[in-house]
Amino acid sequence: MFVELDLQSETPIYTQLADQLLAGIASGALRPGDPLPSVRSLAADLGINLHTVNKAYQVLKQEGFLQVHRKRGVVINPDGMPGVTAAFQDRLRHQLRGMAAEAAVRGMSQEELAELCRSVYDEIRQSGEGGNRDE
Fold first, then answer.
1. How far apart are CA 55 and CA 13, in angstroms?
2. Which of 51, 45, 63 has its CA nearest to residue 13?
3. Same domain for 88 and 30?
4. Is the pTM of this model over 0.70?
5. Are 31 and 60 in the same domain?
6. E-strand spans in 16-128?
7. Where residue 1 falls among pLDDT bands split at 50, 70, 90?
8. For the chain, which terminus, N or C, has the lower number of CB atoms within 10 Å?
9. Which residue ranges does the record assign to the HTH gntR-type domain (predicted)?
């Protein structure tokens, strides 16, 4: 899986990394049971601090997307992905609220915003279809 980080972005690097790993899971490029690189290895490959990679992994572990094994390392949760919870819906609503407010202030219609959301969702879900998996 290819990871691209914007080191100049206001979005923390660990958040960018976690988001890209989630996109890989959503697209099917990363499947349950797939191993991820070690913290040190991924940090070296990306040229970032190992604590940044560790934080991204820990966030995804706490949410139930990853498992960390002493012998097997970090893997995509082989027991399946967490479902939609009230806490997730609350967090999503909070994040969308700010984006929707800015879209409205900029003059974007509700339909344009909804179409953009659909487009992004479809793009993520379809990006893994027919793609090459490096194994």
1. 10
2. 51
3. no
4. yes
5. yes
6. 66-69, 73-76
7. low
8. C
9. 11-79
Two tokens at 98? 């700010």
The total number of structural domains in the chain stands at 2
Cα-based angle 55, 45, 131 (whole degrees, multiple of 5): 95
CATH code where residue 68 lies:
1.10.10.10
The β-bridge relationship of strands 73-76 and 66-69 is antiparallel
- Whether 33 and 79 have beta carbons less than 8 Å apart is answered as no
Residues 58 and 89 in one domain: no
Residues 6+ away with beta carbon under 8 Å from 65: 21, 22, 25, 76, 77, 81, 82
Domain of residue 10: give its range: 1-81
Token pair of 26, please? Answer: 């959503």
Same domain, 37 and 90: no
Whole-angstrom Cα distance, residue 74 to residue 70? 9
* Residue type present at position 113: L
Cα angle value 13/63/71 (rounded, 5°): 85
Quick one: average pLDDT of 97-112? 97
